[in-house]
Amino acid sequence: MKTIQNYAPPDAQSLQRLQDRLGYSDARMAELAGLDAATPWPSYVGGPEPRSLGRQRLFYMMARLTLDEREWQRVLTAMREVGAHLDYEDPQASVAPPAPEPMADEERKFGMLLVSRNGSFHEMEQLREFAHFAHEAGVSRFVHTAFYDSDIDLCRFNFADHDGLDDASRDRIFDAAHKTITRFEFDGRIYRGGIPPESDG
Questions:
Q1: Cα–Cα distance measured from residue 171 to residue 179, given in angstroms and rounded to the nearest whole number
Q2: How far, in Å, CA of 178 to CA of 189, rounded?
Q3: Residues 69, 41 contacting (CB under 8 angstroms)
Q4: Whole-angstrom Cα distance, residue 67 to residue 75?
C-alpha cells in the first residue's frame, strides 16, 4: 500500500491564504481542522513560531473540503464499523435548535453529475447551463461531477480520469464555468462569473 512520504507541512502564509480563500473565521478554521481550545487556529498562522500542521490533520482538512457530505458520511461509517465511537454534529447545535437540513438535489446531464448541496434552484440552473456549454464545447466527457457547495457558495469540479484532458480542454471547461457559474474553484483559485444569483425565496 502506498503511503505519504517526505511530507513537508504548509507554512503559515500558505495556511493564511487558504483561510482567506475560503473566507472562514478562526473558529470555523479550527472546526475544519478538528482543533480544540488548547490549540487555537491562530497558532498555526501567526506568532513568532507558528505551529506546523501534521499530515494527518491536513489530510483531514482537505478531505472535508473535497468530499461531498455523502462521501464524508461513508468515511465516518467506515470508522464506526472498525469500532470507533464518535459524534458528528454542528458544535452550535447545543446553542440553538438546528434548522431543517436542506435536501440535496442532483441530476445527470451529458454524462456529468450535477449536484447542489442544499438543492438551491439557482445553483441547479447554473449547473445545467454549465453542462450545456461544456457539451457544446465538446468537453463534457472530461467532467465527472460539478458540485455546488451551498454552504460556502462555491462550485467545484471533479474531472474524469481521461487521457484526452489536455490544456485546451481544461480551458474550454473553464470558459463554460466562467459563463455560467457565479462562484467557482478552478486549479486552486476562486473565480467569479456567470449570471447573477437569484433568491430561492
A1: 12
A2: 13
A3: no
A4: 10
Q: Which three cell numbers stand for residue 146?
A: 460539478
How distant, in Å, are the alpha carbons of 59, 107, 115, 176 from that of 141?
29, 16, 17, 13
Whether residue 201 is predicted with pLDDT greater than 80 in this model: the reply is no
DSSP secondary structure of 142-185: GEEEEEEETTTTEEEEEE---TT--HHHHHHHHHHHHHH-SEEE
Confidence bin at 199 (pLDDT 50/70/90): very low
Cell numbers 489530510 label which residue? Answer: 59
Residue type, 92: Q
Fill in the amino acid letter for 108: R
Q: What pairs with residue 158 in β-bridges?
A: 145
Q: How far is CA 55 from the centre of its chain?
A: 19
Residue whose grid cell is 464555468: 177
Q: Which residues contact 97 (CB under 8 A, 6 or more apart)?
A: none
Cell numbers of 58, please?
491536513
